[in-house]
TrEMBL record:
It comes from Crucibulum laeve. CDD domains: G-alpha. This is Guanine nucleotide binding protein, alpha subunit. One of its GO terms (biological process) is adenylate cyclase-modulating G protein-coupled receptor signaling pathway. GTP binds at L360, K361, A362, R363, L364, K365, T366, N459, K460, C461, D462.
Length: 549
């Protein structure tokens, strides 16, 4: 019966399907041969079914894989981009954020030491002979520029008789600053780029050459540079870094003079490398006893030098003549990392562990682009994979932004509106607010970004409020403000209108809705609320079109 059927098929197919005919069993197949053939066929089927299963699984996995949202944080340097990223981390990956808290200790120490150095620089008796505009180390100083370009009180002012006394007592901080920078930027054998003059573009980098682009010399994918961070550095530190690495002197040491005016920056990788030394666990084992010990038991830990200088720092900061001199020079340390000055005993304590707020305030300038990924579950269980890119905002960093424009879904643009009386560190001829407005115009008018959701954070509102309360008048810096009231509500409304008008005029997509928030991104509670509303806007607005929800 079977033989007849096979013959029938054989004859039929022989004419119509040569392939089927070729794989049919031979006509004179013996029972043993048939058994072997059927066994082989069954094996082959098992393998084939297994492959089908795998393909099906992959297809399902692909369907199940999380949709992605790419968010770009943009804005000038010190606008609060990295702080916003930290808030996202705190909200969505709190365990990782807390685990890293201890590593920020070094940055906080460095910020504090730097504030002390800036105070001493400001108190130096013949400081008035130096033009404030040349001071690149005044990274976040808020110096109000009078009509002749110099603070009026810089010429005459309170003398601080104890200056020399403070200078001598605080001299160990110079070495400490150098050490902290060295520890933070200690090179790793495995890293492709190391700190030091062996870098071919080192010279142009330290000289602030606009054409310097880290991505051209570091590992680079899709035109996207490797992330680096940069920490403030003063010249003698740089020259000792050069010495250590066997390179030539770029700047000669000046014997640790506090009045060194040539603040420079040096870049180090953000790839967790800088966190390594200060992470709990690295130094927590005693080399002799093998017992677990706190860093405070390690005599080499920088906390000891800092702790020893604490009484002098406190005395300096509490000296009414010092405060008066800072007021006269209109040096607003609270606008930079000066906030640690109010917490000297806590921060210099041997067992100090940074709080969330301390980490949010820690200032570490970004160079290149830092990426942070996390998942946010949505209504359907799949959730959405968020990628947040934090870029360097200084002028010579902005060329690194463009490669990220292609696949971005949303932009959070930060404009620090308290900066209306400040100038750019990288170009002291440019008012910070003017730069923000210009940058904003470039972003909103960009055709590549025409269909990207844009959220605007008018940031540093807390500092704006304090500044206006202190009597600083907006119309002295923006003539167009005229004689409108100088209070927070009127000023913030004015800025909101100004930024919105630019968007309205220059956007290539007239349908695009602009979302504006008045923010103080160091404030965790308020920022959490804003972030969750921003998330909804991004998901519902932009991503609906992409069928991600
Ligand atoms: N008081 C106050 N401080 C803020 C606010 N936003 C940021 N800061 C502080 O300002 C400093 C600069 O903030 P960052 O987040 O590092 O600025 P950035 O935009 O990342 O700067 P770059 O990396 O140079 O581009 C940090 O010390 C922050 O803690 C704010 O709304 N209020
Ligand atoms: Mg940053």
């Amino acid at each position: 019966m079977r033989k007849t059927k096979l013959n029938h098929i054989r004859q039929g197919r022989r004419l119509s399907d040569p392939l089927a005919a070729a794989i049919l069993p031979p006509e004179d197949e013996s029972p043993v041969e048939r058994e072997m053939r059927e066994k082989a066929e069954s094996e082959a089927k098992k393998i084939s079914d297994h492959i089908d299963d795998m393909l099906r699984q992959e297809r399902n996995d692909r369907k199940k894989s999380k949709p992605e949202v790419n968010v770009l944080l943009l804005g000038q340097s010190e606008s609060g981009k990295s702080t916003t990223l930290k808030q996202f981390q705190l909200l969505h990956t709190p365990a990782a954020f807390h685990a890293e808290r201890i590593a920020w200790r070094a940055v906080i120490y460095l910020n504090l030491v730097r504030s002390i150095r800036r105070i001493l620089e400001a108190l130096a008796p013949d400081v008035d002979t130096i033009d404030d505009h040349d001071d690149e180390s005044m990274e976040t100083a808020s110096i109000i520029i009078s009509s002749n370009g110099r603070p009026p009180s810089a010429i005459l002012g309170t003398r601080v008789p104890k200056y020399e006394h403070y200078r001598q007592r605080l001299e160990p901080l110079i070495d400490l600053e150098e050490r902290l920078i060295r520890l933070l930027s200690s090179s790793d054998e495995d890293e492709p780029t190391q700190l030091g003059p062996t870098h071919p573009d080192w010279q142009s980098f330290v000289s602030g050459n606009e054409n310097y682009f880290p991505g051209q010399t570091l590992a680079n994918t899709n035109g996207r540079p490797s992330p680096t961070i940069s920490i403030p550095l003063k010249s003698q530190t740089l020259s000792s870094a050069a010495n250590r690495n066997g390179g030539s002197h770029l700047l000669s040491p000046n014997g640790g003079n506090f009045r060194n005016r040539e603040g420079r920056e040096v870049s180090v990788h953000t790839s967790n490398n800088w966190k390594k030394y200060f992470q709990l666990g690295n130094k927590s084992k005693s080399p002799t006893s093998g017992e677990i010990a706190g860093w405070w038991e390690d005599p080499d830990d920088p906390v000891h030098a800092l702790n020893a200088s604490a009484p002098a720092m406190l005395e300096l900061w509490r000296d009414p003549q010092v405060r008066q001199r800072l007021r006269e020079k209109r040096l607003r340390l609270e606008e930079s990392s000066g906030f640690y000055l109010d917490e000297i005993p806590r921060i210099t304590a041997k067992m100090y562990i940074p709080t969330d707020a301390d980490v949010l305030k820690a200032r570490l300038k970004t160079m290149g682009v830092v990426e942070h990924t996390f998942s946010i579950p949505s209504g359907s269980n799949r959730g959405v994979e968020w990628r947040i890119y934090d870029v360097g905002g200084a002028r010579n960093q902005r060329q690194a932004w463009a490669p990220y424009f292609e696949d971005v879904n949303a932009i959070i643009f930060l404009a620090p509106i308290s900066a209306f009386d400040q100038v750019l560190t990288e170009d002291p001829r440019v008012n910070r607010l003017e730069d923000s407005l210009l940058l904003w115009k470039l972003v909103v008018s960009n055709k590549l970004l025409a269909h990207v959701n844009i959220v605007l954070f008018l940031n540093k509102c807390d500092l704006l409020q304090a500044k206006l309360d202190a009597g600083v008048r907006l119309n002295q810096h923006m003539i167009s403000y005229g004689d409108r009231p100088n209070d927070y509500d009127s000023v913030s409304k004015y800025f909101r209108t100004k930024f919105s008008a630019l968007h309205h005029t220059y956007t290539p997509n007239k349908e695009r809705e602009l979302y504006v928030h008045l923010t103080a991104v160091t404030d965790t509670r308020k920022t959490a609320v804003i972030i969750s509303s921003v998330r909804d806007i991004i998901i519902k607005g932009n991503l609906r079109n992409m069928r991600l929800v």
